[in-house]
Automatic annotation (TrEMBL):
Organism of derivation: Faecalibacterium gallinarum
Keywords, comma-separated and alphabetical: Membrane, Transmembrane, Transmembrane helix, Transport
Cell location: Membrane
Example of a GO cellular component annotation carried by this entry: membrane
Domain Cation efflux protein transmembrane: residue ranges: 31-224
Species lineage: Bacteria, Bacillati, Bacillota, Clostridia, Eubacteriales
Protein name: Cation diffusion facilitator transporter
InterPro entries in UniProt: Cation_efflux (IPR002524), Cation_efflux_CTD (IPR027470), Cation_efflux_CTD_sf (IPR036837), Cation_efflux_TM (IPR058533), Cation_efflux_TMD_sf (IPR027469), CDF_Transporter (IPR050291)
Amino acid sequence: MTQLLTRLFVKNHQDLKKPAVRTAYGNLASLVGVVCNLILVVGKLAAGSLFGSIAIVADGINNLSDASSSLVSLAGFRLAAKGPDEKHPYGHARYEYLAGLAVSTMIMAIGLSLLKDSALKVLRPEPVGFSVLSVGVLLFSICLKFWMSRFNRQIGEAIGSDTLIATAADSRNDVITTAAVLASTVLCKITGLDIIDGLMGVGVAVFILWSGWGLVMDTLSPLLGESPDPELVERIERKVLSYPGVLGVHDLMVHDYGPGQQFASLHIEFPAEVDPLDAHDLIDNIERDVRRDEKILLTIHYDPIVTSDARVGVLRVRLNEKIRQIDPALSIHDLRIVPGTTHSNVLFDLVLPAGYTGDRAEVLRQLREFVTQQDEHYICVIKVEQSYASAHREK
């Protein structure tokens, strides 16, 4: 069914890297969500009101929130497709994240309302009617939501949309909550305990609140500036290191302005003896190739490394081994030796992962002591930096 819908409603559906195709996929998923959820809303509100079940009504209102969420997602995809303008040179792709945050907030608000209504039903239980119609509506809802979960996940994974993947998880959760409502309807009929309906309504509301909170945190993370995908970091570093002459990479930063709008910068270590024009030409080639393959605008800073001085090479190997012994999460780069009449300065950058909780002073002490042990005329000068890519390791 997913393939049929995409072939019918998404032009050039196989060209997933095109922004217009990605937007078309998002629009399709959102519209399907609106239609399917409205069908469920009508059926559940009718059945719940007819037979006096707060649990079925609560489940129907949950579907109404899902329909509203799909509308917000649709608006988010359409706004995110707007190109750069004078005030927003990086585009508008973050609207998709904002849409996800709005959806999550709506889910939380509806969950609180349902919790209040269900709690009142627990305090003042009312008779719950039972019919084949209400059972049929709930069974149909379970089947439809299961399909919607698969549908949204397939499209979300295809176009890399966290919003649709979250929608898929929400549909999966709806399968669980509706199954619980169905169980309460049957139990009320078997036991005659009408309080079960209110209790199940409370359970559904709590589950909605729990899911909504998780979605809030998921959508806030990219807006706050989360660490880049470790696989992306590894691909970029591996690709850059594959070019002849590149000795190392460090200080990789990835800035996310929304799906399809990523910018990155990094430093490469390159032999200082190479002609600057040749080095510049190679850097241009790397930036162009990364943009073509990863759809990321990469800016590279060139760090010249003296390779003709054997002392630098030997000290780099020894320092890398020492830093691995101290803590494998640490790394160094930009090592250089500046000779003088009475002493030589050994300078390098020490990179700590974000949130590092180790003893920095002790690490610096051990490194300075180790450098001095290599040559009594060495004076160690260390610059401490933070890594902005969690998967980064010194190559």
